[in-house]
Amino acid sequence: MSAEIICVGTELLLGDILNSNAQFLAQQLAQLGIPHYYQTVVGDNVERLKQVIEIATSRAQILIFTGGLGPTPDDLTCETIADFFGVPLVERPEIIEDIAQKFAGRGRVMTPSNRKQALIPQGAEILPNPTGTAPGIIWQPRPEITIFTFPGVPSEMHRMWQETAVPFLQNQGWGKEIIYSRSLRFWGIGESALAEKVTAYLNLPNPTVAPYAGKGEVRLRISAKASSEQAAEALITPIEKQIKDIAGLDYYGADDETLAAVVGQLLRVSKETLSVAESCTGGGLGQMLTEISGSSDYFWGGVISYDNSVKVRLLGVNPEDLDKFGAVSATVAEQMAVGVKTRLLTTWGLSITGIAGPTGGTDTKPVGLVYIGLAGPNDEVASFEYRFGTMRGRALIRHVSANAALDLLRRRLLTR
Amino acid sequence: MSAEIICVGTELLLGDILNSNAQFLAQQLAQLGIPHYYQTVVGDNVERLKQVIEIATSRAQILIFTGGLGPTPDDLTCETIADFFGVPLVERPEIIEDIAQKFAGRGRVMTPSNRKQALIPQGAEILPNPTGTAPGIIWQPRPEITIFTFPGVPSEMHRMWQETAVPFLQNQGWGKEIIYSRSLRFWGIGESALAEKVTAYLNLPNPTVAPYAGKGEVRLRISAKASSEQAAEALITPIEKQIKDIAGLDYYGADDETLAAVVGQLLRVSKETLSVAESCTGGGLGQMLTEISGSSDYFWGGVISYDNSVKVRLLGVNPEDLDKFGAVSATVAEQMAVGVKTRLLTTWGLSITGIAGPTGGTDTKPVGLVYIGLAGPNDEVASFEYRFGTMRGRALIRHVSANAALDLLRRRLLTR
């Protein structure tokens, strides 16, 4: 038994809107443990929609449609489905009454075109829409096929799904098994290197383990199929522990935990504080740290020393060293870190100076060269050189630089 | 002749990621005037992917695949396509060399699993990936079928599409009628208010004008259908001019022009400089300004004064005023702006202090209350109060605050 998601709307084919409905339904089906193997997008076109229904009925038993339920002539999902199964549409007075009431509630009068929304296939149940005018249907045109239709407006669709579709699916005995996932996050190791380290896990049947990469980091998703969240957890936890042991410090957090959140939590526990000095990231490191509500407990602020004069004036960087070694150098990174730490009176000072490009690179100092400085208790100070390469673009170099700085502090806090 | 978009990845079926690749490709195909009638999402599964290829080849001539080109065993798009058409994979040494070079550039060693990415169907052309390791292919396995493959990482896919796929499609003589759009951007006016002002334009047949809203700003997209970009421009330009006249200062830029870019250009022209003092945005304003390469010509840096001690120590805010008026106040915003301007010796100083939430609000100072300070030449100083409301969330309040500050400076620079 499996489901298929069919999103109807020419606006999706024109790229006018993001198909967030497909993502929502996909997440919901996964949580219910109802497998789905295909999603299809098709325009507001009778013949093509019929062809899509033909294909879907040959490979899925639950067909979930979104879009095309509105009052205008190009909304034709419901009549096309009825026509495909050779069943007439009937006007349902309770829908007309509901629409008329909703219009009255907004001080408007129902238009004739809305009557169209009261036509549903003979034998179908109404799937009520509490917030909009277009109801959906739940319909079994054949014993082995169940059809759901939803309007394309995400907020209406979500509520109809939760309030009516989910209980219906569960009553049918579908969705007994759930799929539950945890995403483990890694920094400082590439996708292929990590995959090789955990290669024994990549072919497990349940839970499954799959790597994916994005924006400088790698994730491993552990997905378990089980009868309950608890049972899924019991499958995931031992694998998670083994993978964490293999990965060591390259593992930094799970699911929505960012490096900034992990570092923040470590500082909160150790009752220490942090300040930053940023050149090429221009404030991006501070922004990451302050995405977390409550970060003021440990993050005190910093200096954006984009111009060299600011490095000298606000951070106390030695102008002679700036001349001698250049702004993008280990020496300057260290002086920036020490400068911000001592001026803001924090436990740790973290600095970034680099060449984000696309211009400004030289043979000896190419685009992507970044120095990160870290100053800490007992006059501890160190710097680290990174070469992020020229091909990844300015935005990614800045993003990776800020996260590399956070990762450095994370490793330092965990290894003392 | 039509195209079909096929997105491969179990993460899409699990709802882990939004299918932004389908939207991007849909927009691009629309711009090129290449019709496409179906989008399909399928998991990393050989048999189901083959079935999808079977269906797609029966109804489309251009098949565009994204995802499944990585180095791990679950990445099987390329081999499945080759297998479907009964063509062997061949290892291409130029791909291996390219991957090895990219690894070397990042100071890493290529892993054996990456060799897999060098296997492409016999007879296929390499579609180069300038920023990642996974190349795509352009392949005509049959005279009437053209296949493109792209990695799932959006930034890599976009560049490969623009640099190689678009010229290829145009060379083939496809995409003769184009849809060309310009997006006008507005700050400081709501969607319905703007729609009312330009209501006469919203029913034009060609070009069409459509409003849409997002992240605190409103856009009007003007789209023309024509035989060439030039012909489309000729349709768009007069409408664009009329709308700009109607909107006045609420219009700030077009397409990819951000407020930070517009302000930067104004400062560049007037040969003036800017510094920032940020509390609740934590560096986000500096980050926006430095997204632009070359921003060091006018942006000198700033202070992230997240903790009150930093406002006093680095910006010279009066501690008694902090006590009396609170950190989120007009007085403190003005002192921050003056403080950063005088300490960094810039023409303008821009400050933000506010309550981004979700905690920290009070009856008199609710979440969403933000003060922006602006200090300029001849001891000019002013502050502005904003109430962004509690419902929009921390990230959006911070985003809107930083842009409101930039918009304030933009209006000041344009009205002197």
TrEMBL record, chains A, B:
Family: Belongs to the CinA family.
Database matches in SMART domains: MoCF_biosynth
Domain MoaB/Mog: 4-172
Alphabetical list of InterPro entries matching this protein: CinA, CinA-like_C, CinA_C, CinA_KH, Competence-induced_CinA, MoaB/Mog-like_dom_sf, MoaB/Mog_dom
Protein name: CinA-like protein
Pfam families: CinA, CinA_KH, MoCF_biosynth
SUPFAM superfamilies assigned to the protein according to its UniProt record, in alphabetical order: CinA-like (SSF142433), Molybdenum cofactor biosynthesis proteins (SSF53218)
Source species taxonomy: Bacteria, Bacillati, Cyanobacteriota, Cyanophyceae, Nostocales
